[in-house]
């Protein structure tokens, strides 16, 4: 990026790239493809926090798509990279595990003090039941919010807004059987004061469109983007921009 990231203005499709599942050349290929199709941003991260160094992958992505924002989705403070435009500083407000509510944030302080140009975006992260046990649920040892209780989603998002969190991320989790429902997205939109990100279980352009119609600013896809044709990806990006 040649200019500061205006995260609040981003709208559309976000592609999640997992550096633990691919090398730098594969990540660069996906980043270039994403940029060609006009995605809003590239999100890099995984749920396990097992990869040792994502620097090569991130630099390859940036070289392949220099005008597309690269935002990190860290599982742990030890993963943080200075080569991204911004970091979603996630607080797992749907759970009650202190490590993911505040402890990793404390551990991240030295990184942000060393790298003041990397923007930290305080983000309320909510797991919503997608019909299967996801890696995030297993690693964090927390339960997702029920899919049929949008009022609980709203209460958690409102609480996060009251304590000053800037963005909200609703996630059904990678490999979820179903995406976050429109009712839950609308409930979050009603309570959120900043950008709303939705991901997990998004397998078709219609699901992207439904999420956007319900109030999501950014819709995250991963496996779907990797496996689909250029024509389908263009449909996804168009649905997310509309």
The total tally of domains equals 1
The low-confidence parts are none
CATH H level, superfamily name: FMN-linked oxidoreductases
Note the overall shape. Answer: globular
CATH topology: TIM Barrel
Structural class: alpha/beta
* Averaged pLDDT: 92
Radius of gyration: 16 Å
DSSP strand tally:
8
Order of helices and strands: EHEHEEHEHHEHEHEHH
Structure, described:
The chain is α/β, with parallel strands linked by helices. It has a single domain, classed as FMN-linked oxidoreductases (TIM Barrel). The chain has helices at 24-36, 55-64, 98-114, 135-140, 150-162, 182-191, 205-214, 223-227, 230-241, and strands at 12-17, 41-44, 70-72, 86-92, 119-127, 167-171, 196-199, 218-221. α1 packs parallel to α2 and α7 (205-214) runs parallel beside α9 (230-241). The longest helix is centred in the middle third of the chain and has 17 residues, at 98-114. The two termini are 24 Å apart.
Explain the layout of strands and helices.
Elements: E1 12-17, H1 24-36, E2 41-44, H2 55-64, E3 70-72, E4 86-92, H3 98-114, E5 119-127, H4 135-140, H5 150-162, E6 167-171, H6 182-191, E7 196-199, H7 205-214, E8 218-221, H8 223-227, H9 230-241
Parallel strand pairs: 1-2, 1-8, 2-3, 3-4, 4-5, 5-6, 6-7, 7-8
Helix pairs in contact: 1-2, 5-6, 6-7, 7-9
């Amino acid at each position: 990026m040649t200019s500061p990231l205006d995260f609040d203005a981003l709208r559309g499709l976000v592609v999640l790239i997992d550096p633990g599942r691919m090398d730098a050349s594969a990540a660069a290929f996906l980043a270039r493809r994403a940029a060609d199709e006009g995605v809003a941003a590239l999100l890099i991260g995984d749920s396990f926090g097992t990869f040792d160094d994502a620097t090569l992958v991130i630099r390859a992505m940036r070289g392949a798509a220099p005008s597309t924002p690269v935002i990190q989705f860290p599982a742990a403070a030890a993963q943080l990279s200075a080569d991204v435009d911004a970091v979603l500083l996630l607080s797992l407000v749907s759970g009650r595990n202190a490590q993911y509510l505040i402890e990793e944030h404390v551990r991240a302080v030295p990184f942000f003090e060393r790298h003041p140009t990397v923007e930290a975006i305080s983000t309320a992260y909510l797991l919503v039941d997608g019909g299967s046990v996801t890696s995030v649920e297993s690693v964090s040892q927390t339960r997702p919010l029920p899919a049929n209780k949008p009022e609980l989603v709203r209460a958690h998002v409102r609480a996060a807004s009251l304590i000053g969190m800037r963005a909200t991320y609703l996630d059904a989790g990678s490999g979820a059987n179903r995406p976050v429902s429109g009712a839950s997205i609308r409930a979050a939109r009603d309570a959120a004061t900043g950008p709303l990100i939705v991901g997990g279980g998004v397998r078709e352009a219609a699901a992207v469109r439904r999420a956007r119609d319900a109030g999501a600013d950014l819709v995250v896809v991963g496996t779907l983007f990797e496996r689909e044709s250029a024509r389908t990806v263009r449909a996804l990006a168009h649905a997310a921009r509309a």
